[in-house]
Amino acid sequence: MPLNDLLLVGAGAFLAGGMNAIAGGGTFFSFPALLAAGVPPVMANASNTVGLCPASLLSAWAYRREAMRHGRWAVLLIVVSLLGGIAGGLLLLATSNAAFSRLIPWLLLTATTLFAFSGQVSKLVRWSKGKLGGDPATRSPGGPGGAMFQLVVAIYGGFFGAGMGILTLAALSIQGFDDMQEINALKNLTSGVNYFVSSATFIIAGAISWPHTAVMLITAMAGGYVGAAFARRLPARWLKRLVIVVGASLSLIYFYKTYA
User: Fold this and answer.
1) Burial call 151-169: b when 16+ CB within 10 Å, e when fewer
2) Which residues contact 68 (CB under 8 A, 6 or more apart)?
3) Within its chain, how far is the Cα of 34 from the centroid?
């Protein structure tokens, strides 16, 4: 691999690992770097998933205490993410992502908007549950609807992955989770599982460019560790603002790249 490609892919993966640990959206750094290095799109997508997998698992481990405060819900999210990751990975290997890629800016914009107004939406959801019966104040966050939403997000994550973290953050916020650190922990948990099973699918299928992936494995893990350490020390309100800024910026960038 030429030195300039090595530096390009390494830098993209470092930023991706850090952003995935903080707010999601890291794929938008690493995937374009692989394309710029000359890796074909489908192989770049598969290599990107494998390259970011250890960093995502490392971030999940760093947040393990916060994630397991919701034991049963965390286990359910693991199962849903596993099934969705397998389904999305198989879907990528069987179809082209050209048409689906045109939806990515819209998905990011929707997720960012939902997250920005998640407090208001969460109050509306709890009020609706209260009208259907029971005291909404005694209800635990999470539920069947949230699990189904996360299954859709997991399938999308296995297929392409860009913005999966932001979609998960939005889904968890709307479900009633209000502790930003716990939300981020559950997001890292689901992302780690999704990356792991998708990576296994791509490796078995032989869809990986190993020279580029090897560089990503090292630099993305470093970025993930730095990002997780930074996020855990960031005040909750600033972490939420950072997520909104990242989501809005990525939406604008990909609207331009897709439709300009």
Assistant:
1) bebbbbbbbbbbbbbbbbb
2) 74
3) 18
Where are the chain's structural domains?
A: 3-259
Kindly give, in sequence order, each residue whose CB lies less than 8 Å from that of residue 228, ignoring residues fewer than 6 positions away.
21, 22, 58, 59, 62, 63, 188
Q: How far apart are CA 31 and CA 51, in angstroms?
A: 10
23-77 pLDDT per residue, tens: 666 787 898 899 889 998 889 889 999 998 887 888 788 888 888 887 788 888 8
Q: Distance (Å, rounded) from C-alpha 157 to C-alpha 256?
A: 22
Sign of CA pseudo-dihedral 212, 10, 109, 82: positive
Following CA atoms 150, 214, 242, 83 in sequence, which dihedral angle do they give, to the nearest 10 degrees?
Answer: 0
Closest listed residue to residue 11, CA positions, set 225, 257, 215: 215
Question: What is the DSSP track for 230-244?
Answer: HHHTS-HHHHHHHHH
| pLDDT for residue 174 | 72
Q: Taking the model in full, what pTM does it have?
A: 0.75
CB burial readout 108-118, b (16+ within 10 A) else e: bbbbbbbbbeb
What integer best gives the mean pLDDT of the chain? 82
